[in-house]
Hints:
The structure is a homodimer. By secondary structure, the first copy, chain A, is α+β, with helices and mostly antiparallel strands.
Amino acid sequence: MAVCGPMKHLPFAAALGLVLATPSLGEAPPKPAALAPSEIVAAAPKGDWVAIAPDDLLVMDLAPDYRGPSTGSGSRRVVIQLMPPPFSQGWVGNIRKLAAAHWWDGLSVNRVQDNYVVQWGDADGEDKAKARKLPDGLAVVPENEYVAHTSSRSLCYQAFCPDLPSAITMWRTTIGDSTGLSTGFGAGWPLAAEDYIPGKESDSVWPIHCYGMVGVGRNLTPDTGSGAELYTVIGHAPRHLDRNIALVGRVIEGIENLSSLPRGTGALGFYEKAEERTGIVSVRLGNEVAGLPAYEYLSTESQAFARYADARANRRDAFFIRPAGGADICNIPVPVRRVK
Amino acid sequence: MAVCGPMKHLPFAAALGLVLATPSLGEAPPKPAALAPSEIVAAAPKGDWVAIAPDDLLVMDLAPDYRGPSTGSGSRRVVIQLMPPPFSQGWVGNIRKLAAAHWWDGLSVNRVQDNYVVQWGDADGEDKAKARKLPDGLAVVPENEYVAHTSSRSLCYQAFCPDLPSAITMWRTTIGDSTGLSTGFGAGWPLAAEDYIPGKESDSVWPIHCYGMVGVGRNLTPDTGSGAELYTVIGHAPRHLDRNIALVGRVIEGIENLSSLPRGTGALGFYEKAEERTGIVSVRLGNEVAGLPAYEYLSTESQAFARYADARANRRDAFFIRPAGGADICNIPVPVRRVK
C-alpha cells in the first residue's frame, strides 16, 4: 500500500516572514499574507535560482504562421531545456549530435493530438526512400535507460530522502500503483521512484510525463527511438507513458507556439496534408544561438520552492475559499524565468 | 490518512472473454488479447451506452477563423453536456435561461491561458456602462452549492460504495489531502468525495476539474458567478479549483476549436486587443439546433467502462512495456460518441 497524503511540512508561516516587510517596533506582527504562488516565486531570493547552461538548451524556430512571426512569447520560438544526468543521457547525446548537424532544419511539426502531444521530425521518416539520413554515430539506447539505476539517496531529493535533515519534505502523490510509487522534485525536475520505505533506499528513479515535458518518439519495443523524432505533452499528464518512453527535457518558453497549433485530423492527430504541417526553420543548441537570453529555474531544493509548492497545493490567496490540501506533482510546474 | 492504491478489481480477463471470439470446440481458449482502451470502448455493447438528451446540450458556434469554418471536428462548433442533478443545478438553470434568451450571441472568447483555461462571455462585463444586460430571473447561487450535500450511497457510485454488491470497484486516487479524498466516476462524471470509510457514508460529493470540464467564472467570494461567464479546462487538471468554483458541464465535441486558439498575451491570458477575440455566432440548447447529431456516453457503471478504465491504468497493448498500475482520474476521460 502506497503511503500518501501530506507528510511533514516546514513551518511555512514562519518562513514566509522572511520575505514580508518587518513590522515597526511596537506594532504587533502582521498576520502572514496569503501570497499567491506567483508572488512567492517573484519574492524568491536570487540565490534560490539556478542558471541553465546555454548548451543545455535546444532552440527551435518555427516558420511564421498567418499571424506572422510574433505570437504569445514574442516569436515563433520554442526553448527546451535538456535533461541532466543521470537521466536519458544516451538520447540527449543523440539530440546534441542532431542539433550540431542542423538535422531538423527544414523538417516540420507533423502531429498535434488534442490533450496529448505535439510531435516533430521527419514526416517521411517511415519511408526509407525519402527519409532524411541520420548523422553517423547515434547511439542505440536500451529500454532500461528509461529509468536511472541509481540510489535515490545519492540524488537526495525531497520525497526520496525525507529522513535526512537537509531534505525539505513534501507530500507524496501516487498514481495508484499497488507496488508503491513516490513522486517528488529533484534537481529541478519532476521525478518518480519506488515508494520510499524508511531504512530502504530505492535504486531506480525516473522523470515523469507532465505538461511540456519532451520525449523521444519511437516505434514498437525494443526500439527506443534515436531522438530525431520528438514530442511534447500538451494536455493532462499521460503518466502511462512513464518508463515506456524516454523523456529528454521540457519546454521552458514558447510552448504556446506548439500547443495552439491546429489539431491534425488523421489517426493519432497526424496531419493528413503536407501543407498543414508547420515548418521548422532551425533547431540549435543554445550556445549556437546569438542573443539568446539566459534562463534560470527555481531550485527545487530551496525553501522558496517548498513554499511555492505548498501554495500550489493550498491556495489561500483572495480568490480561494477552500485549500485543496495537496496537489498532483504535474500541477506544480517548476518556475523558469529569463535572467533579468 | 487517505487510502490509496488499487482496490478490488473485477476479474478483467474473464470479462474480456465476453467480447472476444469464442474459440472452436477442441481448441485451447486463446490468451485474452491486450486490447487498447479505444478497442474496449469500440467493442462495448450498445446497452452500455447512455443517451444524452438534446436539451442537456449547449451548442456554441464560433465565427470562422483564417482557415474557414472547417477545422478538426468538421466545424467551428463546440458541444457541451450540462451537468445533471444533484450537481450545480442553480447555475445550470441560469445557463438554460441565458441560452434560451440567445444571450451569448455576438459575444466572444476573451481569454486563452496556456495549460489552464479558455473563457468566454461578455468582454465588457466588468464595465457597467457597456455590459450586456442579463436576463431577468437568474438565481444567485450560494457557495455551498459547489458541493452536493447528499449521501454518496444514494448516488451509489463505484468508489463511493465499494461494499455494495452492485458496485464496480475501482482504485481510488488522491490529491494528497490529509482529510482524505476519494475520486471515482458516477453517472458519467468524474467526482470526488470525502474518503470512503466502511460503515460511514460521505455526505458531500462534488464534480472535479478535468480537461474539458466547463465551469462558471466568478469574481472574489462570496460571488459565485451567474453562469454568463464560462470557461473550459485546456491543460493539466487544475484540481485546486475544485470546491472553489462551480462546474456545470464538459465539452464533448469540438474542444480543439477552443484549445487551439491563440493564447492571450495579457494578464491571465486575456486578449489585449478586441480584434484578437474569437466571435461567438450563437449558443443554443441542443433541442433548438436543427440537425444536431445524437450523443451518448459510456455508462460509468458498466463493465465495459471498468475494463476501459483498467486498460487506461494498465496499458498492455503492443506499444507498452510497463503497465503503470494506476491512473489519475483525469486521465480516464469518459467516452462520448455520436450515435450511429
